[in-house]
Write a structure and sequence with these properties.
homodimer, 327 residues, mainly alpha, two-stranded antiparallel sheet, 76% helix, 1% strand
Chain lengths: 327, 327
């Protein structure tokens, strides 16, 4: 996004320096995997938001650079360990760390990356560090809790849509809110402004995650970059599936359970039939409605923030661009 | 130890409150294992040292309680993940977390515990938090590096005694130094006093670890509480083994390698013959000499500290008691 090109420049420079520092650290067995996963890229949404959260109050985004790096390191730590938990072979089209270097190195380099996030944060301005650390650690714990809830869902019979929203809020959304608020803290923004910015980020995160579930089923195969219907094949408890169970009548529930647990149906047929049922129940539209609800809440919080109007509009544009992936 | 009974009282109270807080947190799947491992006890040496590091400068030990808890939480995180790495079935005579609840819960509750350590630390006095966080995070990274070095040793052909001292310094000793220094930071001690206290703790830690290797071979079976010779059986690269390789002549090296890698020798015979070789080479005495060297360095640092003499003597007594396990 054009409006953020100078922020991206600051960020990319800092990430590059961080990588150089990791690259020159030893033991290599622990640091090479850290460098590898950071080098896989990604959109850098979280650390960018930290710089935006500072810049929106007309403060120098460099003041938030340590917080931004901390957020990116923490995010990468969570990717390493989530991939172990999920036994995922690939991350952004490349081998995951545990696949490439083995389980123990993945575990330990993840640990090292998490501590590194806090070490980087420790170099923030002394006036902000207590608040930054309290928010960052609280959020980090919530992310772990969200991951645990997600794991619990795998074996839980009854999961409500409400439970699901709670899970994605912790697993994904709070880190977006935290990223923005950390920037605002570095800009000495008022508590009111900080809170609105946090809520904005959180609700954008919730909307994003719900739309991600929709995309997994309804995306254009070629544009999606991963297998459409993957969530259906793996019986993942997504917004769509949980909503479908809440809306289904007795025979539809029976059919859905049959599709989920039968070993006689091909994956292709399973995806087709579950999608048909989703269409009958209208869960796609309900998911989009729920995502829009959270987008609206987010934008209301953004409106409340006392900040540079142009910069608020830029943030609005950035969020809508994030959410406006073709469904 | 009598001199520290009131510090232990403060500490135990705080740990108990921490456990109550964990006990009332959810999801239970993540918090129950944390509570379990903290409940297994241990000597609580590290958090006690944090309180001692504050008290020795005649400051209220309560001022260091968050730092002390952070250290204990971090230590317990490292135990959870080390047990996964080592595939250890038992910890303090009880099932390890990954044995009791499975790998994924162990991984995640370890992560949660580590973030919790930083969250607790965030409640320290604002005047100290930057320094506390910088020291704590730096030490945390060193502990991970030490663990990685230890893992590397398993497949490394040549490990020098010097490499070994470096590894135990990071894996074990720096956290003892850090624990004490964090207390000193909370007491507003001078940088000079802080550094001497850190070095004291670090060298006590090195001595402790070397003596631990000696104990594993030469302890009284009944008093030791675990299998004597366990390190020999598992070919662990201890101070004794590495020193033996450095001192052995050609035929002794050959014999040692034979004992280590032959599948035809019983464990009992292996322990006996390796111990005989250790005795011939005098590595036990050399290890004790090396441990004493570090104890002496530690005590010299303690002498340099400008603090209450009685309290310095108490700390000396405590350290010597820690080290004076019957060999």
């Amino acid at each position: 996004m054009q409006a953020y090109s100078s922020l991206f420049q600051i960020l990319n420079q800092a990430i590059q320096e961080q990588q150089q520092s990791l690259d020159s650290s030893s033991p290599k067995e622990m640091y090479a995997p850290m460098n590898y996963i950071i080098g896989l890229g990604g959109k850098r949404v979280r650390p960018l938001l930290t710089l935006v959260g500072c810049d929106i109050f007309d403060c120098n985004p460099n003041d938030a650079i340590h917080a931004a790096l901390a957020v990116e390191l923490f995010h990468n730590f969570s990717l390493i360990h989530d991939d172990i938990l999920d036994k995922a072979p690939l991350r952004r089209g490349n081998q995951t760390i545990h696949e490439k270097w083995g389980h123990n190195i993945a575990l330990l380099s993840g640990d090292g990356m998490m501590v590194k996030a806090f070490e980087v944060l420790a170099h923030s301005n002394k006036n902000h560090i207590t608040q930054l650390l309290q928010l960052f650690a609280k959020t980090g714990i919530e992310v772990c809790e969200g991951q645990q809830l997600d794991m619990n869902f795998e074996t839980q019979d009854k999961v409500s849509v409400e439970n699901y929203i709670h899970m994605i809020t912790y697993k994904t959304a709070v880190l977006l809110g935290c990223s923005l608020q950390m920037g605002a803290i570095c800009a000495n923004a008022s508590t009111k402004n900080q809170n609105h910015l946090y809520e904005f980020g959180k609700h954008v995160g919730i909307a994003f995650q719900i739309l991600d579930d929709v995309l997994d089923v309804y995306a254009d195969d070629e544009k999606f970059g991963k297998q459409v219907g993957g969530d259906i094949i793996s019986n993942k408890k997504t917004f769509l599936l949980l909503d479908a169970f809440e809306l289904a009548n007795e025979s539809q529930t029976k059919e859905l359970n049959h599709l989920l647990y039968s070993t006689k149906i091909s994956n292709q047929e399973k995806v087709k039939q579950v999608t048909d049922l989703y269409n009958t129940l209208g869960v796609k539209e309900l998911a989009i409605k729920e995502a829009n609800k959270h987008t609206d809440i987010a934008l209301k919080h953004l409106e409340e923030i006392e900040a540079n109007t142009i910069k608020k509009n830029n943030l609005k544009g950035f969020a809508l661009q994030l959410l406006n992936r073709e469904v």
